[in-house]
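Review box. Two proteins, two foldings.
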Amino acid sequence: MSNFEDLLADRMKNPAFADAINRARAETDLGFALSLAREARNMSPADVATAAGIPVAMVTRVETGQVVELASLAKIAVALNARITIEPSGKVAVKLN
C-alpha cells in the first residue's frame, strides 16, 4: 500500500470522515452518470439546459458533482427522459427510458 492508501484507510475509520467521502463519491458518480446519459442522447449541456429550462451552468455543476437542488435534478432527468436512482448506500444509477 502507498502512504496515501494507508492514510485514507486510517481516516475512513472515522465515521464522520467516511460519511463525507461517501457523499462526495455519490455526487461525483451522479454527475458522471448524467453526463454519460446526456452523451448517449447526443445532447450538449446547452441542449439539456434548454429542454430542462435551467441555466447551462446548472447542468455543468451537476455533471461536475456539485450539489444542486432536487428540483434541478428532476428537470434534468425529464430533459434526458431518464430515471435517477440513489440508494441509501450512496449507489447511484441513471437509466434512460
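Next protein.
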Amino acid sequence: MTEFPSASPPTVLLVEDDRRLAEMVTALLVEEGYRVEVAGGGQAGLHLGLTRHYGVLIIDRGLPVLEGLDCCGSCDPTESARPRWF
C-alpha cells in the first residue's frame, strides 16, 4: 500500500467510458489506498472536475462526445499543477 504524507490520500477522478476498465483501474487504486470517483464520459467528468476538487485526474483520451484533452482544456486553470494522466 502507498504511504501518503498527509493524513488522507488524494481523491482520484477517473474518466473512462469502458466500465470493465474503469472497474479494474478503480480496484487497483483503491488497493493502493486512493479514493476514486468514476465518471463514465467526458461531460460527466468535466462537471465533476469543475464542481469538486481532485488530487489526480485520469482521463481516457478517446471518449465519445467530449474527448479527454478537451475536458482538461475546459478545467479550472488555477488547478494546472494537478497531475493528469491520459
